[in-house]
Amino acid sequence: VIYLYGVCHGSSLPAMRDELERRGLGSVRFGELAAIFGDVAGEVALVSEERLWEHEDVVEALMGAGALLPARYGMVIADEAALEEALEARATELAAALRAVGGKVELAVRARFSAGIDGGPQRDGEGPQEGEGEGGGTAYMSALMQRRRLAEDLAGRIDARLAGLASASTKRTLPSATQPMAGAYLVERDAVAGFRAQVQALDEEMAEAEVVCTGPWPPYSFTGAGGGAGDES
Amino acid sequence: VTPPGAIGTTVGAEARIRGGQDVTLLDLLDRLLQGGIVIQGDITLAAADIDLVNLSLRVAVGAVESMRRDLRGPISREALPS
Predict the structure, then answer these.
(1) Under an 8 A CB cutoff, do B41 and A45 touch?
(2) How many CB atoms are closer than 10 A to CB A136?
(3) Angle at B59 between CA A107 and CA A214, to 5 degrees
């Protein structure tokens, strides 16, 4: 049983050699593609912050050698033959995705409603519930709709400013009650500073929400064909 | 991205960007458990770190459901707190 870390161009393997040896990792090739794997050590099934960071550390180190499609945490495959079969089955799609992420990194953008401006059901009778009396159910639904409208407006304004700085993007509107938007943007490495500055400008301009950015991350959100762009609510 | 409070590798030489420890961990969860390549495999995931789960149980559970859909196969959820 082996553990998948990612898929890269076979031509990147020479530059990865030292890193692979140092970490005890192996590779499987199919055509122009290569998959990087490691041993399944201990309880790989256990999701903990430490293990997630360990996975992330390996992926980031491998990315130093070239474009890489990171694997989702926990991808365990029977053996090298099964991994080669998986590469063969999706070779065209993986090659296209690799081309799309070359030279780029992922930046995460998340917005949080400012205190008292979440537009949703309020505590202590303030906000949308005020004056509703026994119509609490109606007020609650109305507040939910108000929250969604505000979230859609904020998400649209944020995305309008950032999407043009990225080659691909994906966003979720209202991923939780306190967050109007969470997005991922695929950005050229040398454009990271400009993207970050734009996020900071948005954060300063928007009274309704705090806008924060983390990264650069490996392109986890863009491993599908065509860069994996898309929106969902 | 470097784990909060630690020194590690980064993607390239860009300045590290943080959104605070909670946001960074939430973004890590989103990416590693809901993004990335998914291929046919046998996966069993369990959430063990109570702090991690407290921070984002929604993300962890959503990720397991997402993986179940992607793999179209059985998945066990041992030790997930109720």
Answers:
(1) no
(2) 11
(3) 20
Reference A100, options A5, A209, A227, A228; nearest CA is: A227
Give residue for tokens 């080669």: A84
Per the listing, tokens 């430490």 go with A50
- φ, ψ (nearest 5 deg) of residue A70: -70, 145
Strand A46-47 and strand B46-47: the pairing is parallel
Per residue of chain A (233 residues), what is the pLDDT tens digit?
Answer: 889 999 999 999 999 999 999 999 999 999 999 999 998 865 556 677 888 899 999 999 999 999 999 998 888 888 899 999 999 999 999 999 999 999 999 999 999 998 877 555 544 444 444 444 556 788 888 888 999 999 999 999 999 999 999 999 999 999 888 899 999 999 999 999 999 999 999 999 999 999 999 999 999 999 985 444 456 55
Contacts of B81 (CB under 8 A, 6+ apart): B47, B50, B53, B57
Phi, psi of A62 (to 5 degrees): -65, -35
**Across the interface, which of A176, A216, A223 has its CB nearest the CB of B35?**
A223
Locus of tokens 């499609």: A69
Among residues 51-90 of chain A, which lie with CB inside 8 Å of chain B? 52-53, 55-57, 60-61, 63-64, 69-78, 82-83, 86, 90
